[in-house]
């Protein structure tokens, strides 16, 4: 399972590329790579999703629920790590 899109309260729609439980892929808005500084609401979604779960990813192997693993992988793609 992977995150493919993010919708924020300010109606921003981000696309997320890459598959698997790793940091391979990008988060983009209108084909521009998103950073925590350029889109703080998207970064907040990724950060909250990574903090509020019990999963772990070790060597691209998920230990836990797929939805929670997808949120951790999203944070990794944004350069937030496990937060």
Account of the protein in words:
With 83 residues, this protein is an alpha+beta fold. It has one domain (5-77). The chain has 2 helices and 6 strands. Strands 1-2-3-4 form a 4-stranded antiparallel beta sheet, with no helix packed on it. A two-stranded antiparallel sheet has the order 5-6. The longest helix has 12 residues, at 40-51. The radius of gyration is 12 Å and the shape is globular.
TL;DR of this structure?
This protein is an alpha+beta fold and 83 residues long. The chain has helices at 40-51, 66-77, and strands at residues 5-7, 13-16, 27-29, 32-33, 56-58, 61-63. The protein is 29% helix and 22% strand.
Structural class call reads: alpha+beta
Quaternary state reads: single chain
Helical segment count: 2
**Uncertain segments of ≥5 residues (pLDDT<50)?**
none
Query: What series of H and E elements makes up the topology?
Result: EEEEHEEH
Question: Strand arrangement, largest sheet?
Answer: 1-2-3-4
Give Rg in angstroms: 12 Å
| Average pLDDT figure | 95
Number of strands: 6
Largest sheet: 4 strands, antiparallel
How far apart lie the N and C ends? 20 Å
InterPro entries: ATPase_P-typ_cyto_dom_N
GO molecular function: nucleotide binding
């Amino acid at each position: 399972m992977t995150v493919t899109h993010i919708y924020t309260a300010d109606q921003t729609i981000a696309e997320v590329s890459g598959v698997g439980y790793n940091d391979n892929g990008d988060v983009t808005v209108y084909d521009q790579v998103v950073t925590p500084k350029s889109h703080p609401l998207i970064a907040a979604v990724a950060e909250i999703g990574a903090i509020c779960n019990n999963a772990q990813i070790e060597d691209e192997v998920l230990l836990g629920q797929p939805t929670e693993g997808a949120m951790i992988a999203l944070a990794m793609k944004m350069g937030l790590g496990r937060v």
